Amino acid sequence: MSNDVEHAKRALRAELRERRGLLSEAQREAAAAAIGERLDALIDELGARSISCFLSTLSEPGTREFVTRAVRRGIRVLLPITRADGLLDWAVATDDDATTEGLYGLPEPTGEVLGPIAVNDVDLMIVPAAAVDRSGMRMGWGRGYFDKTIGSMEKCPPVYAVIYDSEILDSLPREVHDQPVDGVVTPSQTLNLSPSRR
């Protein structure tokens, strides 16, 4: 059974990765600008003063300008740093855009490294995803970092995934460790979903 689910996820991830690869630079820039505006509004709506976010790669919906803007607005932004043990360390974002290459070639912040529990103090988590279904189930890219983080938090804040509009699906293959999200932010909408499992 779980092999079938893993196979279905692998095939879906490959399709989603290919679709993202077809976007033009102009489409990516427009999507990043729209997503940034929606994330700004979400922070205001929730009154968030401290958030976690991720530094987008070229294939992901852009978050970098949003992060810089949030820092300049006085929001404390924690950025993830991957560890070999499957956990995430965190660093406080600055507005200088300095990054280094982390595990798996992902962009990571260069600031002082804080341990995994640093994220327990945020008011909002903004996470990457390959897709999210209408029940709030999130499918990541297969390494499990955010599932572990969300699943281990005693008092998890609202969690929103950043994806493209076409990546909201009716249902997703799921495994026991998969964690739902409370909502998604796309270029065209902020969609609140039901989980609130906290």
From TrEMBL:
<dbReference type="GO" id="GO:0030272">
    <property type="term" value="F:5-formyltetrahydrofolate cyclo-ligase activity"/>
</dbReference>
<keyword id="KW-0067">ATP-binding</keyword>
<keyword id="KW-0460">Magnesium</keyword>
<feature type="region of interest" description="Disordered">
    <location>
        <begin position="178"/>
        <end position="198"/>
    </location>
</feature>
<keyword id="KW-0479">Metal-binding</keyword>
<protein>
    <recommendedName>
        <fullName>5-formyltetrahydrofolate cyclo-ligase</fullName>
        <ecNumber>6.3.3.2</ecNumber>
    </recommendedName>
</protein>
<keyword id="KW-0436">Ligase</keyword>
<dbReference type="InterPro" id="IPR037171">
    <property type="entry name" value="NagB/RpiA_transferase-like"/>
</dbReference>
<dbReference type="Pfam" id="PF01812">
    <property type="entry name" value="5-FTHF_cyc-lig"/>
</dbReference>
<feature type="compositionally biased region" description="Polar residues">
    <location>
        <begin position="186"/>
        <end position="198"/>
    </location>
</feature>
<dbReference type="InterPro" id="IPR002698">
    <property type="entry name" value="FTHF_cligase"/>
</dbReference>
<comment type="similarity">
    <text>Belongs to the 5-formyltetrahydrofolate cyclo-ligase family.</text>
</comment>
<keyword id="KW-0547">Nucleotide-binding</keyword>
<dbReference type="InterPro" id="IPR024185">
    <property type="entry name" value="FTHF_cligase-like_sf"/>
</dbReference>
